[in-house]
Automatic annotation (TrEMBL):
Cofactor(s) listed: pyridoxal 5'-phosphate
Keywords attached to this entry: Aminotransferase, Pyridoxal phosphate, Transferase
GO MF term (any one): transaminase activity
Stored PROSITE patterns: AA_TRANSFER_CLASS_3
Family designation: Belongs to the class-III pyridoxal-phosphate-dependent aminotransferase family.
Sections of the chain in a coiled coil: none
Protein name: Aspartate aminotransferase family protein
Gene3D superfamilies listed in its UniProt record: Aspartate Aminotransferase, domain 1, Type I PLP-dependent aspartate aminotransferase-like (Major domain)
Pfam families listed in its UniProt record: Aminotran_3
Domain of life of the source: Bacteria
Organism of origin: Lacrimispora xylanolytica
Length: 449
């Protein structure tokens, strides 16, 4: 079966069938929607995909964090098929469908927030959910401003793009919405020279206070929005002590703390959400945004917040045609059931333990491996020219990505310098597949450095 197979390349890439389809893509699809991988998927199972030419690839990207439970789960197919035979769609603003209610109840049960009584709404994508979270925070608080961070990625819609740090994602599409202010994220690997972790965190907290002094007074801030692990920014985890400081600041000034768990959620971190770690440390968020792996590949996203926050939102401000689509809700309920039944949180920690041990050995072996970081199975390897200068080595990473795919491993870069290899492998990967992927990646580093 494909889900138990190993990477196997049978034709030069792209193969003849893939090449023909990719040429059609070039003619029909906007060039701005880029792809760097010379393959065209035919089918996928588990952590593996097969292209139209019969080549088999181990997928360490997983739809950029969408496929935590893997490709083509029979349980999901059956759940969606069963729902499709009743109805595809019922708009919640018009007529209630029970699947939406059941999924809301489940989300309210599993999402860790400061408040114990919660409500949830659904949208279609991470960017949509972030925009709704901002609207909710502003409507509830009556305040206009939002604070985001350096390195942040929150989406490509107009508001989300203005919240996103990397402006190549937003070049030429302004003017942008106002009321968005940026503080410095605690990127400890590139923190102030000579600072230990404790001093560095104090520095970054002070930088946040500077935003209150120089950009927006705290009493005008509706919410602070933060990724527990920055994704596009380079797989940089938010230090727990810094999150505690954020929580204290938010409580002091009446600001809502929003956790963007679009990429970190649904067992990726070794818990259902990174915010579970936050809650155990006494610093849970007020609002949590999730998407990607929520429905195993169908478009769905969620905003979960305190009941009093949602009840403070004016009617008509939130909602939408396809948010909480019946097929997506059926798939999400089954996805969460699989995560819990198969204890994929524990599996994530076991995979992470094995990979981190290997990655750390590469850090000792290769001058170009500057940092290894992450939480659970959301890990990044940062490549540099050398450990002393820490100059980003995006050229090397590009070569590694291209080399890996030719050997049957799909990996992707991240970071402002495109110098980080991200690890987002489906949590159902077999041990043998994991070993194969680690071997291919190490060989790529050796060949390309």
């Amino acid at each position: 079966m494909l889900k138990d197979s190993l990477p196997e390349i049978k034709t030069p890439l792209p193969g003849p069938k893939a090449d023909a389809i990719l040429k059609r893509r070039m003619e029909a699809v906007p060039n701005a929607i880029k792809s760097v991988y010379p393959c065209v998927i035919k089918r996928g199972e588990g952590a593996m995909l097969e292209d139209v030419d019969g080549n088999r690839f181990l997928d360490w990207v997983g739809g950029v964090g969408v496929l935590n439970i893997g490709y083509s789960r029979p349980e999901l197919i059956e759940a969606v098929k069963e729902q499709s035979e009743q109805y595809f769609h019922a708009m919640m603003n018009i007529v209630t469908h029970e699947g939406y209610i059941s999924l809301v109840e489940k989300m309210n049960e599993i999402v860790p927030l400061k408040a114990e009584t919660k409500k949830t709404m659904f949208a279609n994508s991470g960017a949509e959910a972030i925009e709704n979270a901002v609207k909710i925070a502003r409507s509830y608080s009556g305040r206009p401003n939002i604070i985001v961070f350096s390195g942040a990625f929150h989406g490509r819609t107009l508001l989300a793009a203005s919240m996103t740090a990397k402006k190549s994602y937003a070049a030429g599409i302004g003017p942008f919405p106002d009321g968005i202010y940026r503080a410095e994220f605690p990127y400890l690997y590139r923190g102030p020279k000579g600072y230990g972790e404790e001093m560095a965190i104090e520095y970054y907290v002070e930088r946040l206070h500077k935003v209150f002094e120089e950009a927006s007074p705290a009493e005008y801030v509706a919410a602070i929005v933060v990724e527990p692990v920055q994704g596009e920014g380079g797989f940089i985890p938010a230090p727990l002590e810094w999150v505690k400081a954020l929580r204290k600041i938010c409580d002091e000034y009446g600001i809502l703390l929003i956790a963007d768990e679009v990429q970190t959620g649904f067992a990726r971190s070794g818990r259902l959400f990174v915010s579970h770690y936050w809650k155990e440390a006494g610093c849970p968020p007020d609002i949590l945004v999730s998407a990607k792996s929520i429905a195993g590949g169908l478009p769905l996203s969620a905003v979960t917040a305190a009941k009093e926050v949602f009840d403070g939102v004016r009617g008509g401000v939130i909602g939408g045609t396809f948010g909480g689509n019946a097929l997506a809700c059926a798939s999400a309920l089954k996805t969460i059931e699989i995560i819990e039944k198969e204890d994929l949180c524990t599996r994530a920690l076991k995979i992470a333990e094995k990979c981190r041990k290997e990655f750390e050995s590469w850090k000792k072996e290769f001058e170009e491996v500057g940092d290894v970081r992450g939480i659970g199975c959301m890990m990044g390897i940062e490549f540099v020219k050398d450990k002393e200068s820490k100059i980003p080595n995006g050229t090397l990473v590009s070569a590694i990505v291209a080399h890996c795919v030719q050997k049957g491993l799909i990996v992707e870069s991240a970071g402002s310098g495109s110098n980080v290899i991200r690890f987002l492998c489906p949590l159902v990967v077999t041990d043998e597949q994991l070993d194969s992927g680690l071997s291919i990646l190490k060989s790529a580093i050796e060949a390309c450095r």
